[in-house]
Hints:
It comes from Paramarasmius palmivorus. InterPro entries: LRR_dom_sf. This is F-box domain-containing protein. By secondary structure, this protein is α/β, with parallel strands linked by helices. Among the domains are: 256-395, no CATH class; 421-430 and 447-567, no CATH class. The protein has helices spanning 20-64, 73-82, 106-113, 138-157, 178-192, 207-215, 238-249, 290-299, 349-357, 382-391, 409-414, 443-451, 480-490, 515-525; strands at residues 121-126, 163-169, 198-205, 225-228, 257-260, 276-279, 288-289, 306-312, 324-325, 331-337, 359-360, 366-370, 397-401, 421-424, 469-475, 502-507, 529-534.
Amino acid sequence: MSLPPSPFLSKLRTDFFASPAEEVEIHHLISTRRDRLQAIEDEIARLRAEQLELQTFVDEHLSLISPIRKVPIDVLREIFLQSMPENGFPACRALEAPLVFTGVCRLWREGAISIPMLWNRIHIHLPAPTPDGQPITEKFLTFLHLWREGVMTWLGRSGTVPLVVSLRGGLDWCSAQERVIEFHADVVLQLLECTSRWRSLSLNVSVETWRIVAMSKAELPLLETLAAPFPTTGLVTEEEHENLLKAVVKRAPSLRKLYLGPLPDNLPIRWDRLTEVSLQPSGWPRELRMSQAIQVLYFSCTSLRHFTANIQIETSGQPAFSPITLPSLQTLNIGVMHVRYHHPIDDPEPVFRRFLDCIEAPNLVSFSLNCTKFHRRISSLTSLVGFLKRSGCALRSLVLSVPVPSTEMNDLLVSMPSLVQLKLTPVLEPTPWLAGSNSDWHLPGMLIDLLTPSQSNIDCNVLCPNLEFLVVRGCPALYALPIIALAEARCAEQSSTQKLKRLQVQFRYSIEDTEVPLRVEALRRRGMLVKVDSAENPNANLVTTRPKPDFCDYVHSGQLWWPIDDV
């Protein structure tokens, strides 16, 4: 039904003032249109309800002929297993695996519950009330009851298979939160009843929770992985922490992977059986001396495959270490902690040389050096070049978070012809106490010149011909176009080098050149994953596609490894 046009159309958007008679006429026009508008809205609501009913009918009947209904239950179970995250822990959320499988239908629920391997990994975060000191509410206590029941149900579904357990959080004892701590203790005690099935344990908890775990006398016959940094909260001495850690370690004869903060003395462990060790103390006074790191390498030299350590460099004048050959070592990640202010060292290179000069790793494939927390410049990396040449290893990944002298980049890259991944973080800001720090700004330009194939050397050997992943941070904006040109040359069809697959660059300041985004997009269309941003605004990517995590982004793919540096 069409309505007649309004006689007041010509008066709209003018200073027209209606008379009393015209006001009555306008009210009548509005009333008729409102009635029509309501009729249309009612019709729309009816059609939407009909649409929903028809769509539901179609979806439900389509599900009757869905191919998934024909999948045998054993195949369905394998699909469930393959849908789980490969690393880390599954989320305890209703819309993610494995809980999502239990809400589809009775068959799926029964199938999911009957697979213990879906439930053998559990991350338990001990909840705490709000930190504002308010009294604990009944709502929070109800949540604690449901949380405890959920943890117990999850553990019950794991059956008798080995468990991967992560325990985080916890509270120190105080009268105001005594009821919450009782809930925590109850869950931990229930968890301790499964110690014979623990295959991996990560403890990042308060000292109160640590004490409960350490006081247990139950053996840990299957425990292969232990991650236990310093207690997160609570008053605990280093001596007590060592005793708590020893109480756990001595009951784990099958331990193979160890991730600690500070390293206790005389730890009762079979070092010659360890394959992975990570020692990352938080800093003074809990620190790792170089002599301690060398001692660990010496004791575990025959079996060690991955080693990560944040080392406190000691003053010079110490005796040289005995040579160590590490035939199985594949990953070596070294973080150099800042020197204590009462033990200043003008140049840490001679001290750091003592560490590299005593080891050989013929099968090393990944090396990382992080000196960003150091308060002095490293004058030379000849010790690193010598270590790589002496070991004769085919290094595939190099991560340097250190002010690298630009004059040594050529020797460094020449020693690594098999390099696939290069991550470089020079000094991000000029620092007055770093002698000669201004020369570090030439490093990106030197690196670009060394890695860019040119027309003159396109048929000759170029440095790092197998490079696929390049990361540079702290790069001056003036190198934006040259580094894009490097990527273009590395993915050219006629290039004799391996095509560069991923490029990640963080500039110190925003890029104003409008040509850069266009050329970045062109690289993306050619199949390269690119991320370009600035330290000023790291979230404002020129290309929003973020490169997938690489195999060496973390020293281990599981959540039990801690990243040496977010490069």
